[in-house]
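Data availability (excerpt). The following record was deposited with the supplementary files.
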Amino acid sequence: MADKTSSFVQWRRWALAVLTAFACGAALAQWQWVDATGRKVFSDTPPPASVPDKNILKRPGSRTPALSTAVPSSGTEAAATSTGAAPKLTGRDEQLEALKKQAEQIDQSKKKAVEEQQAKTRAENCDRAKRAKTTLDSGIRIATTNAKGEREIMDDTSRAAEVKRLDEVIRSECGSSVN
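Predicted structure:
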C-alpha cells in the first residue's frame, strides 16, 4: 500500500511541476516599461501609446530585456560606455524628415491636381452657361421636354426664369469675368 501512496505522491508532484511550467509560460507574456513617474510597470497588456519605445524594457516573447535602465556603478564603466561606441544623437532623424517632406510634396501635388480639375470643370460650366444664355438672348424658339417626355415651347416667363438661373451660374462659375 505504501508503494501506491508514494507513486500517487510522485504523480501529484509531476502534475504540479507541469502546471507550474505552464504558469511560468504565461508569465513570459508580460510587458515591462517605465512610466512617466519613473516606476517600473509590469502588465500582460501593452503600454499606452504615450510611453516611448525607449521606456519599454520587456516585450512578450523576448527572453532578454529590450533596454537596460541600469546606470554604470564605476567610473571606468561609465568611461567605457561614453566612448565612440555610442552614436551621437542630433535630435533629428534625417530619414524621417525626408519621408515627411516626400509626403508633404505628394499632398501638395494631389491638392494641386484637385484644384486644376475644379478649375477645368468651372471653366466648362461657365462656357456652357454663356452659350445657353446667348441662345436664349437670340430670341429663337426653344423647345424643352417636360416630366412626361412631351415637347413644350418655352414661353416668356420660363425664358426669363432660365436667363436668371443662367446668370447665377455664370456669376458663380465665371467669377468676375461676367459679360
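Summary of structural features: The beta strands are 31-34, 40-43, 56-58, 143-145, 151-153.
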